[in-house]
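User: I'm writing a short methods note and want a consistent example. For Superoxide dismutase, I'll paste the sequence; you return only the structure tokens, no commentary, since I'll be parsing the reply automatically.
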Amino acid sequence: MSISKAATVLAVCGAVVTGLLGFRNATAQHAETKEAKIEKAVAILIPTKDSKVSGRVTFSHEGGKNTVHAVLHGLTPGEHGFHIHEYGVWSEDGMASGGHYNPTSHKHAGLDVKERHVGDLGNITADAKGNAELDLKDAGFLFHGPTSIIGRGVVVHAKADDLKTQPSGDAGGRLAVGVIGVAKP
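Assistant:
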């Protein structure tokens, strides 16, 4: 091959590589832009075997603040542990959802402690009819990056979370599990 043909082939290959790298960078920037625009996520809670607990949990990021709004039905009156778990998987006993979501390796704690599991949402309290509603502001979760809650599980437990027993607050069995998915804002 002549030097001029080799130079042409090299120039074409260089242009293709440059184009592919530019496409890759544009695609990565587009993905980052799309991720940053997630403002809302929802989990529909499905009862585990022998449970009647169901509900909906909405996670929102608006005006620089994170909020959690939960509405549950079918609980026994009183407090119940309420957490984000590692896996967004439902199973009859709820155990497929794994442990509390803890990508930062902090100890389990209540909402008043800054360094805690990302999944620590405290307790939700059911009234005499077994209905519960919760509104909280919580800076512990994100919709993107290494502490993203998208695709994780939400679990409601049979007992109150004591907010101190490691690693999970001794909250008992799992009454309902939901998967956190991106929602339309």
